[in-house]
Amino acid sequence: MNWTKLIYVLIIVLLYTPMVFLGANVFFPKYTGTEAYYHYEYNDCYQKYPAPAIEKTSLEEQHKIEKKQTECQKEQQQSQQTFEQTKSQYEGTKYIFVITFNLIILLLALFLPKLQDSVTMGLFLSSIVTTFGATIQYFNSRSKIGFIALVITFFLT
User: Fold this and answer.
1) How far is CA 147 from CA 91, 95, 107, in A?
2) In the chain, N or C terminus with fewer CB closer than 10 Å?
3) Contact 20, 102 (CB under 8 A)
4) pTM here?
5) What are phi and psi of 42, to 5 degrees?
6) How many whole angstroms separate alpha carbon 86 and alpha carbon 89?
7) What values do phi and psi take at 138, rounded to 5?
């Protein structure tokens, strides 16, 4: 067995996979890094509407404050749900980008006969490994187009 061919395959796999994910984050920068999670303070509603001393307020005033805190918490939950839905749609677009790119590379690797065998095998394995990684990473995006592209990739493989 020729070890240099295996080294070429491994080099392509090890460089291709992070390159595709980095490219996805460069071309689709939203929801990456510190922006990947919804930011809010748990005690924000309690800071906006602090509970006064029990002795100094009536029961009615305490209920009004509790009601305002509850409404504030519902608004935060609604805001978080909106953030999560928007992020999921965006992640679906990222997933489609990664899968489509891998599908193109897979097609090139399979139908370009002029490449060396080690390069073809490296591109083939890289596109499969990256497709698998993207599927795991963006699993919650539930992209229908991404699923169709994944099925095409599976049958092409």
Assistant:
1) 13, 9, 18
2) N
3) yes
4) 0.73
5) -60, -35
6) 5
7) -105, 25
